[in-house]
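> example.struct
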């Protein structure tokens, strides 16, 4: 089964950090076969702090977990956390297309 990161984020407050995260994320995503799926913010029916929601699809749950623990992602994540507040869950399943 596929694996997903579901990320709930606030408005970006540090554009430079977000840009650096994006630069670092590209090769990591390619290595793990990850695909971004932007979700409609209107899906946040009961959110107090999040204004954005993103799903990152991986070919498997194992790859989703491995990517999160990869030292290259740990480095990139520091920029994501500087760019905006966020919360993330990792799930297994198939969200479809």
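> example.seq
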């Amino acid at each position: 089964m596929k694996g997903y990161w579901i990320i709930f984020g606030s408005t970006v407050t540090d554009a430079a950090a977000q840009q650096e995260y994006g630069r670092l994320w590209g090769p990591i995503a390619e290595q793990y076969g990850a695909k971004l799926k932007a979700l409609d913010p209107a899906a946040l029916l009961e959110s107090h702090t999040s204004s954005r929601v993103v799903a990152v699809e991986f070919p498997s749950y194992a790859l989703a977990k491995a990517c999160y623990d990869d030292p290259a992602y740990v480095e990139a994540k520091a920029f994501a956390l500087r760019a905006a507040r966020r919360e993330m869950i990792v799930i297994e399943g198939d969200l479809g297309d």
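> remarks
The mean pLDDT is 92.
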